[in-house]
Write a structure and sequence with these properties.
Helices cover 22% and strands 30% of the residues.
Length: 54
């Protein structure tokens, strides 16, 4: 399994939770770069990464 590039990241302790990361993923997807949100447990953050092709 190879690591995907991180397009954006947001702290897990953000008052709005994962919402900022989800909004960024939706913005990127709407502009033609399909993206999704994952939780980086080691970094205690939400990361926006390109969607995997499966």
């Amino acid at each position: 399994m190879s690591a995907r590039p991180i397009l954006a990241d947001f702290p897990a302790g953000h008052p709005r939770g994962s919402r900022p990361a989800e909004e960024k993923a939706a913005e990127l997807t709407a502009s033609g770069t399909p993206a999704t949100v994952r939780m980086d447990l080691n970094g205690d953050r939400f990361v926006v990464v390109p969607e995997s092709e499966s």
